[in-house]
Amino acid sequence: MVNRDVRCVHCNKLLAKHVITTCGLEIKCVRCGVLNTIAVTQGKQIMVIDTQGKVLYVNQFLCDETGYTAIELVGNNCSLFQRAGQDIDMVDVWESSPNKNQSFDLQAHVQKQNNIAYLAQINAFPVFGEVGTVALFLILETIIE
């Protein structure tokens, strides 16, 4: 696991902090428009959400694990995965964080489409917008059990 800041290859604008490397996701720099490939560990479930929790992107690993299709997920709130009775919410965790520009980790039970839940390690990494504030989160999910 490698922690590092991710900057635009063209203009050096900070895109994300502490992203883990070796597979790929592209993020377009809002300053110069260059597409930047951000590498992530292969086999991880990946999701990109906005600061309201709306799902903007999911990878095939996440779809395979949860039983949902990308069409069913994109545009919905990530709380769709939240197990009934679980009060952990990624957006709430981020909003209550003393430093909103830092990545955060949590463990949560993730609800599959067939109502079976699994325990996952969630790593959320902020992606910064044009004015330097957090615009998106890159979410990496690893199955624990």
Which terms would index this structure?
145 residues; mainly beta; Beta-Lactamase; 37% strand
Structure summary:
With 145 residues, the chain is mostly beta strands. It is built from three helices and nine strands, in the order E-E-E-E-E-E-H-H-H-E-E-E. The strands form three sheets. A five-stranded antiparallel β-sheet has the order 6-5-9-8-7. Strands 1-2 form a two-stranded antiparallel ribbon.
Task: Tell me about this structure.
- This protein has 145 residues and is mostly beta strands.
- The protein has a domain at 44-143: PAS domain (Beta-Lactamase, 2-Layer Sandwich), CATH 3.30.450.
- Helices cover 12% and strands 37% of the residues.
- The protein has three helices and nine strands; from the N terminus they run ββββββαααβββ.
- The chain has helices spanning 60-66, 70-73, 90-95; strands spanning 6-7, 14-16, 25-28, 35-38, 45-50, 55-58, 104-111, 117-128, 134-143.
- It has a five-stranded antiparallel sheet. Strands 1-2 form a two-stranded antiparallel sheet. A two-stranded antiparallel sheet has the order 3-4.
- The radius of gyration is 15 Å and the shape is globular.
- The model has no long low-confidence stretch (mean pLDDT 77).
